[in-house]
Every structure is written in C-alpha cells, then in structure tokens.
C-alpha cells in the first residue's frame, strides 16, 4: 500500500505554474524536504515541508503515508522553488509520438485499422514542398493514403477534421494523466494546454 502510494505520479510545475514534468511521490517528497519544491494544494497555496507536515496532521481529506515518527500526506502537485531542475520538455518528432498524437486513427476517415495498415501521410505532399513537421503529417489508413497519393487533400474531396499540431509533451508522456476531471492536475494541464507555444 505504502509502496504503491510512493510510486504514484506527481505533477511538477515550474515557478510560473507551468507543468514541466511528472515525477513520483517519493521523489516529490525528497524535493520538498530539500527545499527544492513546495507542495501545491487546490486553493493554490504552497507548502514547505514543515507546513505540509502540519497540514497533514490536521487534514482528514488527504491520503497519508505513515513514517515511524509522523504522517505525511501524498502530494498531487509540486512547484519547483528555484530555477527549473526539469527544463520544459519537448516532444520528439518521432513515429511513435505521431501515432500517439493521432490515436492510431486515420485522420481523414476516422477508422482505426490494424497498426501495420497505418501510414504517415504528408498533408502537403513532399513533391509539392511539404515538410516533415508536426503540422504537415497525419496518420492515414492505406485506403485514404492510396486515394490521396501526391495530391492535396482538397483536390480529391478529403478534409482533415482537425488541423495537425505539435502535441504537448504530456499527451505523449508514458505517465497516465489522471482522467478525473476534479483532479488538481486538471487545473494546471488546462493551463498548459492554453499556454503551449504553437510555433516549432
Ligand atoms: Zn482513412
């Protein structure tokens, strides 16, 4: 029980309240103990180790870990206090991340074919100067890819329902973003979504 709690994911914010990393409870508590980070609660207050330990004693709603000498609540979000130890993550432009971004789904017709029948399509074909960038590649099923060939989508009546863009690193992270709408994470992830730079 305690082990699994220590391994739970904790969202890490930089000093500008932007999500920059995901770590686990064990590492988060070490950072807070060493004064490298503060715990963030849902009223946006921040706590150093002492005040978090004090809050842990009086709160009934927080989930706690018992150490031999005291109880400490499990943080969900921490904020780095000094310069960022974790530089903002960049999403690598890789085959795997394109598949993750597009949900293994053909972006033209919406089907989810077997994985080996998915292809990476250049929206503006390379033969017409289209680049291999986040905003010019999408997953396409073989049927749509064959149909499209070296033409522009509009020329053959194909339309992309959404404009491809560079994903936020959390969308491609192997950490599970908690689906719970009320999670404290959500506040900061929504923030990240709206503030993510759209330029490469
Ligand atoms: Zn298709």
Oligomer: single chain
Beta-strand content bin: 15-25%
Mean pLDDT: 85
Q: Round the Cα radius of gyration to an integer and report it.
A: 22 Å
Strand order of the largest sheet: 2-1-7-3-4
- Helical stretch count? 6
Number of strands: 9
Bound ligands, each once: zinc ion
* Integer tally of domains: 2
Helix share of residues? 25-40%
Morphology call: elongated
The first-to-last residue Cα distance is 43 Å
Brief digest:
The chain is of the alpha+beta class and 200 residues long. The chain is built from six helices and nine strands, in the order αββαββαβββαββαα.
What does this structure look like?
The protein has 200 residues and is α+β, with helices and mostly antiparallel strands. The chain has two domains: 2-88, no CATH class; 95-156, DNA Binding (I), subunit A, CATH 1.10.30. Helix content is 25%, strand content 18%. It has helices spanning 2-6, 25-33, 49-58, 95-101, 142-148, 184-195, and strands at residues 9-13, 19-24, 37-40, 46-47, 64-66, 71-73, 77-80, 118-122, 137-141. It has a five-stranded mixed sheet. The longest helix is centred in the last third of the chain and has 12 residues, at 184-195. 22% of the residues are buried. The model has no long low-confidence stretch (mean pLDDT 85). It binds zinc ion. Residues 106, 108-109, 111, 140-141, 143-144 line the site of zinc ion.
């Amino acid at each position: 029980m305690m082990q699994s709690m220590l391994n739970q994911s904790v969202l890490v914010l930089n000093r500008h309240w932007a999500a920059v990393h995901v770590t686990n409870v064990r590492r988060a508590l070490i950072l807070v103990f060493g004064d490298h980070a503060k715990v963030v609660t849902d009223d946006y207050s921040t706590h150093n180790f002492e005040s978090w330990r004090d809050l842990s004693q009086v709160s009934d709603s927080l989930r706690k870990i018992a150490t031999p000498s005291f109880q400490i609540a499990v943080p969900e979000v921490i904020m780095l206090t000094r310069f960022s130890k974790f530089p903002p993550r960049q999403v690598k432009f890789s085959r795997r991340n394109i598949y993750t971004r597009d949900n293994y789904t053909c972006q033209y017709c919406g089907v989810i074919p077997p994985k080996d029948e998915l292809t990476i399509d250049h929206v503006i074909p390379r033969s017409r100067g289209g680049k291999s960038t986040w905003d010019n590649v999408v997953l396409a099923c073989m049927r749509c890819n064959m149909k499209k060939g070296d033409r522009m989508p509009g020329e053959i009546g194909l339309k992309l329902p959404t404009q491809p863009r560079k994903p936020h690193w959390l969308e491609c992270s192997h950490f599970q973003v908690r689906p719970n709408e009320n999670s404290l994470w959500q506040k900061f992830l929504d923030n990240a979504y709206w503030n993510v730079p759209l330029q490469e």
